[in-house]
Specification:
It is built from 16 helices and 29 strands. The chain has about 575 residues and is of the alpha/beta class. The chain binds sulfoacetic acid (SAT) and manganese (II) ion.
Length: about 575
């Protein structure tokens, strides 16, 4: 008798019609076979074996370099269940349309069966997925990003409790590219892309879009959050989850080398992108990192911005769309040294400055999490880590101050729902346009976001010891257009204030948007920052917020009657608090 896994694989194979079928075991030997296959394919090259042992550079097709949100669909039976912020296709129509593209797509190719666990192998919060794919790059990446192969087979056994995902490169034509999710069936199909979140189906497709649906059904949370532990003097570690949109510095924050290390404050990394959280017996929300690696943005990453990852990247790393030096070492803008003569750009061409950026702005590294010197001793704890604070954030040149604390859970959910950020290169489309991005989940929520806000509100009533909710903005600019806050390792000063607020300390002043640090609230010794810059960083401008209230009102309006009353109520309360300030 075929197991549920085998039955599904056979079905997928009957559709895609590969020449060969290979069940992956996750071994090192198999990984090396995948690498050899990638090198044979020509899109991947070996990097310097002495200075970057076991590292490769993969060059994706130039039209396949980021997630394509306009080609990503939630295929619920009822269109309203996908909501106004998702693209929707009828499930039958999607099966027909995308099925036609998958039909025979693997002819002449091998179908790799990749069973994987999201989360620590023995955690009750973890789940199993199975991706079938015709891309050795995807197999190799999944081996870094998840617990893959034999361990997953053993956890699954003859159970049908897994999320299937069918992926084929197809012909990589963006006109025949679709990433479709069936939330009722808990099924994913993806065709026509070999890139990151479009193709590594464990990442955004399962761990967020499908898992967010499961989380709502089962009273847990699947969030686009990093998880870090802040160690304070004496060795106590306080865990926090932080949601920022793609390419807004989650990885750098999670792996930060603290500027206050001499004072005993240190940051430990549990995860850099995703968090799955369940209420623990101790009443805290407990978080695991469903991933086992970091798929981070390379440009802008250097010894100044993320020394931990720079050390981690020296072995066993797959680079995607970075440039390469004549010594066959990776290079990208912001790495910290000038481009050497003879640089090859991400497209594989000889580079000179007339050719623009040498690395693609969304170039990435895929590295095992365990290689980071900052990895938390608890990162694979089966019970997860107890979360004391949630931090929302985005890129805002104006409006949002450096940090503020919400009044309570309901207000905090509203703060998350109000989130906005300037767009980055992580998704195709214009860069630098402000868009609303609630909880950094806009492209990743597998159901109607109005119901997602409702789920957050409901969870607040169920968690005996709910995290306090904060908002940060490292990206505020002064009148001269320059960033006001140095960011990176200095961000620990903000985390320290958050920790103090969690512990009922920390000087704060009440404003219409929440509690902002009092002038003496932040630890600023050793940092050169002018009084004016600090005032501007913490300023809550009624004019800016008025515009934001208008913009968010329009955004919330999209959800019509389905928007929870609490969100509308908080919006009105915020407007009223500003009126009081202005007329006072
Ligand atoms: O492409 S991914 O979704 O994996 C990375 C990101 O956009 O956050
Ligand atoms: Mn992400």
């Amino acid at each position: 008798m075929a197991t549920p896994l085998e039955s599904w694989v056979n079905e997928a194979a009957a559709l895609a019609k590969p020449d060969r079928l290979v069940y992956c075991d996750g071994s090192e030997a198999e990984y090396q076979r995948m690498v050899a296959e990638m090198l044979r394919g020509g899109e991947t090259v070996q990097l310097n074996k002495k200075t970057y042992p076991n590292c490769q550079l993969h060059r994706s097709s130039p039209n396949d370099v980021a997630r394509t949100e306009h080609l990503t669909f939630i295929c619920s039976r009822d269109k309203d269940d996908a909501g106004p912020t998702n693209n929707w296709m009828d499930p039958g129509a999607a099966k027909h349309k995308v099925g036609a593209l998958l039909d025979g797509a693997m002819r002449g190719r091998t179908m790799y069966v990749v069973p994987y666990i999201l989360g620590p192998v023995d955690s009750p919060i973890s789940k199993v997925g199975v991706e079938v794919t015709d891309s050795p790059y995807v197999v190799a990446s999944m081996r870094i990003m998840s617990r893959m192969g034999k361990v997953a087979m053993e956890r699954l056994g003859a159970s049908s409790d897994f999320v299937p995902g069918l992926h084929s490169l197809g012909d990589l034509d963006p006109m025949r590219r679709y990433i479709v999710h069936f939330p009722e069936e808990k099924l994913i199909w993806s065709v026509g892309s070999g890139y990151g979140g479009n193709a590594l189906l464990g990442k955004k497709c399962f761990a967020l879009r499908i898992a967010s649906v499961m989380a709502r059904e089962q009273s847990w949370m699947a969030e686009h959050m990093l998880i870090l532990g802040l160690e304070s003097p004496g060795g106590k570690v306080t865990y926090m989850g932080a949601a920022f949109p793609s390419a807004c510095g989650k990885t750098n924050l999670a792996m930060m080398v603290s500027a206050l290390e001499s004072q005993g404050y240190r940051v430990w990394t549990v995860g850099d992108d995703l968090a799955w959280m369940k209420i623990g017996d101790d009443g805290y929300l407990h978080a695991i990192n469903p991933e086992a690696g970091f798929f981070g943005v390379a440009p802008g990453t250097g010894m100044k911005t993320n020394p931990n990852v720079m050390g981690a990247l020296r072995k066993n790393t797959v680079f995607t769309n970075v440039a390469m030096t004549p010594e066959r070492e990776p290079w990208w803008e912001g790495i910290g040294f000038e481009p050497p003569a003879g640089l090859i750009n991400w497209k594989g061409e000889k580079w000179d400055s007339s050719k623009g950026a040498a690395a693609h702005p969304n170039a990435r590294y895929t590295v095992p999490a365990a290689q980071s010197p900052s990895i938390s001793p608890k990162w694979e704890a089966p019970e997860g880590v107890p979360i004391s604070a949630f931090i929302f954030g985005g890129r805002r040149a104006r409006v949002a101050p450096l940090v503020y604390e919400s009044f309570d859970w309901q207000h905090g959910v509203f703060v998350g729902a109000m989130m906005a950020s300037e767009t980055t290169a992580a998704a195709t489309g214009d860069v630098g346009v402000t868009r609303r991005d609630p909880m950094a989940m806009l492209p990743f929520c597998g159901y109607n976001m109005a119901d997602y806000f409702g789920h957050w509100l409901a969870m607040g009533k169920k968690i005996p010891k709910p995290p306090k909710i904060f908002h940060v903005n490292w990206f505020r600019r002064g009148a001269d257009g320059k960033f006001l806050w140095p960011g990176f390792g200095e961000n620990v000063r903000v985390l320290k204030w958050i920790l103090e607020r969690v512990e009922g300390r920390g000087a704060a002043q009440e404003t219409p948007i929440g509690y902002v640090p009092a002038k003496n609230g932040l630890t600023l010794d050793g940092l050169k920052i002018s009084d004016e810059a600090l005032t501007e960083l913490l300023r809550v401008s009624p004019e800016d917020w008025e515009l934001d209230l208008g913009d968010s009102k329009q955004f919330f309006g999209k959800f019509g009657e389905r928007l929870p009353g609490e969100i509308r109520e908080e919006h009105e309360k915020l407007a009223r608090r500003f009126q009081r300030v202005v007329t006072a």
